DNA sequence: CTCTGTGCAAAGCGTTTGCAAACGA
DNA sequence: TCGTTTGCAAACGCTTTGCACAGAG
C-alpha cells in the first residue's frame, strides 16, 4: 500500500487555497485521492471509514460536490463503470484497463485532435476529454 | 422538426438483423434515435409517448439494455450531463456544445492518439473515447 | 461568536424487478 | 402455440435533504 508522506497541514492548506474550510473529513478525502489517484464513492467511503469511523456517506457526497464546485476535485465518467474522482491537476487524459478497471493518467498531445475537430465541424473546441481503453501491463 | 422517411418495416428489419424481436416500441426507439441522433432517456420517453401513449419507462429501460447487449445501440456518457443513446455506427467521436448541450458526431483520425498512448504507457490500447467540448455554430 | 460542516435518518429519484396479460414469430 | 415483451406497481439503491449538534475560523 502506498503511504502518505504529507502532513495534515499540507491538505488543510490545499483546501484553504480553494476556499474550502479544512475539516478532518475533507483532508482525508484529499489525502485519499492524492494517494490513490482515482476512487469511486464506495471505495472512498470504505477507505476513509478506517480512519474516521463515524464518517457518513452524506458527508462524502456533500464534500465531493463542494470540492468539484471549487475546482479542487474532478469527476471522471467512465464508459460502463462508476464515476471516479481525482484531484484537479494539469490537463490530462485517462487510460482504463478493460480487464482490471485500473485507471491511469496520461498526458497526450491534443493539438492535433483539436485542430482536426475545428476544421471538420462548426464548433469552436475548448476542451477534449479522452478515455483510452485497453489492457494494462499486468493484464496483457 | 425532422421527419422520418423510413417505413416501419425498415426499423423492423434493422432490429431483426440484430437478433431483436421487432415490436412497435422498439421500432419507435430505433426511429427516434435515427432521427434525433442522440437522446437521453427522459427525452426519448417524452418523444415516444406522443406516438405510443401507453408506453412505460420500464419498457424503454428494458429495451435500451437489450439493444445495447446486441450492439444495436450505444450509451454515450457525457461529462456533467445525463447519458445519451445513439444507434451504433462506425467509430466516431462526439462534440458537445457547452452552452446548449447539443451533441454531434465527428470522425477523427485516432491513430496519432493511439500511437502516442501506446508509446507513453504500459497499456495496449484497443479503443479511444473522445468527447470534445466547445461552442456550436449557433452558440458562439 | 458565527457560520459552516457533520452525522443521522428520512425523503427523493432514477432504475430495476415481478408478474399477469398481450403479442411476435 | 410458445417464448418474449409490455405495462403496471412495487422494490431497490444511490444520492440528496432537514435538522440538531459539533467544529473551524
Helix-strand blueprint:
Two copies of one chain form a homodimer.
Chain A (H helix, E strand, L loop, with lengths): L7 H10 L6 H13 L4 H11 L5 H13 L3 E4 L7 E4 L5 E5 L5 E4 L4 H10 L3 E12 L5
Parallel strand pairs in A: 3-5
Antiparallel strand pairs in A: 1-2, 3-4
Chain A binds a DNA duplex (25 and 25 nucleotides) through helix 2 and helix 4.
Summarize the model shown.
Chain A has 140 residues and is α+β, with helices and mostly antiparallel strands.
Notes on the structure:
The structure is a homodimer of 140-residue chains. By secondary structure, chain A is α+β, with helices and mostly antiparallel strands. Helices cover 41% and strands 21% of the residues of chain A. Chain A is built from 5 helices and 5 strands. In chain A, the strands form 2 sheets. A 3-stranded mixed beta sheet of chain A has the order 4-3-5. Chain A has a two-stranded antiparallel sheet with strand order 1-2. The radius of gyration of chain A is 17 Å and the shape is globular. Chain A starts with 7 loop residues before the first helix and ends in a 5-residue tail after the last strand. The model of chain A has no long low-confidence stretch (mean pLDDT 94). Chain A binds chain B through residues 75, 77-80, 93, 95, 97-98, 104, 106-109, 112-114, 116-117, 120-137, 140, and chain B through 75, 77-80, 93, 95, 97-98, 104, 106-109, 112-114, 116-117, 120-137, 140. Chain A binds a DNA duplex (25 and 25 nucleotides) through residues 21-26, 41, 54-59, 61-63, 65-66.
